[in-house]
Each structure stands twice: as structure tokens, then as C-alpha cells.
Amino acid sequence: MFSFKQFSIQQDRCAMKIGTDGVLLGAWAPLENQPFSILDIGTGTGLIALMLAQRSHAEQIDALEIDEEAYEQSVDNFENSPWSDRLFCFHAGLDEFVEEPEDEYDLIVSNPPFYTDEYKSDNEQRDLARFADAMPFEDLIEAADLLLSENGIFAVIIPYKEEQNFLALAAAFELYPLKITRVKGTPTTEIKRSLLAFSRNESMNFPVDELIIETARHIYTPEYIALTKDFYLKM
Hints:
Elements: E1 2-3, E2 8-9, H1 20-28, E3 37-41, H2 47-55, E4 60-65, H3 68-79, E5 87-91, H4 94-99, E6 105-110, H5 124-130, H6 137-147, E7 148-159, H7 163-172, E8 176-184, E9 191-199, E10 208-212, E11 214-216, E12 219-220, H8 222-228
Parallel strand pairs: 3-4, 3-6, 4-5, 6-7, 8-10
Antiparallel strand pairs: 1-2, 7-9, 8-9, 11-12
Helix pairs in contact: 1-2
């Protein structure tokens, strides 16, 4: 059990446990378009969908999860949250989900699997949760283009080394950066992650900034505290 300020998450049946990436995206994803409907692609424990339920007034928050154990766990986590009436999880792959899209979404978020072949382990469930071949970036972006409302926002967290590739793929679908935040663990380490938000409207002067998580072990920066304090119990 992992407890946040307003909800708790069981994660014993999920291959991918709660990590900083998911918390970052759930806290960072832009809500300035005041979304009515939200979709979390590859929800895992349901963490990001739950964070967005806490942060927004969206009336429809759907999640998508292909792994059966993770799907069942996210459903339980949704039902045990204060926002169970607004949260719904589909047990399906992205390819199935986009075949007959019924809704458009004002915000689409994803913390996609992104390890390459050399990281493959003997645990198929964990590999499915972690690997880009389970959900290639191109498939994810194509789905976002299909499912995103006219004024919708698409937000992801990916490895920094994939940023240029992802931006190029998104541009091919006429999805343009709205905001980019690059994440470093400490002031002296390399940039590790990119938080990217896209919209259908091309903007030349979108904000690009950097977020440092901690200055020393468990000494968090004011920026990281400001971003996550509504969620972590000790922030």
C-alpha cells in the first residue's frame, strides 16, 4: 500500500510500481484547458488518473490497461478512492481501443513503457509494462491524434534521449509542443527525463524549463516540493 494525502494505492499485483515518473506527470500535466474528459493510456496502478481526479474537475476520467492483473488492481484503486464515480478503466490494448473510438478527450496522458531490448528480463509481465515494443511511441502519438479533442492537450514523460525523436513523430501528426520540462535528479547529474505537453495549435514561444528533484539525498528542491506537495504525505 502506498498512501498519498487524499488517496491510497495497492500495487502488489502491478509489474510497474509507483515511481517518480508517474508522480511527476500526474502533478505536471497542464490543466489550463479545464478538461471535461481525461484519458490515461497504460494506467498501471491508476496513479496518474487518480492524481488528475484530485487536481481537476473533469467529470470523465478513463484509463486504459492491457495487463489483466494491473487492470484489476487499478479498478480496485479507483473504487476505493474519493472519486470512484468519475474514474473508469478499460481492459484493452491501445490498438483495440482506437478501433472504435467513442469519445474525444480534452487531456490525454501517458507514462509509456520505454526500455529497449537489452533490458529484457525473465518476467514477461514486468517487461510488458516497461518495453517500448508493447506500445511504440508512434502508435501512442497516432492514438493521441485520433482521440484528442480540438483544444485538447497530450502530455507524456519519456527519457530525455528520446525527446527529439518524439517531437518529430508528434509533428508528423500535427501535434506541437506547448510546454517542455526537463528533469534532473540532482544539479550535477545529466538530464534524465522530458515532460512534454502537446496541442494542435503550433506555438513558437512555448516555455521550456528544467526541474531538479533534490540537492542531496532526500533534500528536495523548492520546485519539486511545490509540484508534489499536494500528494506526498511528507512534503
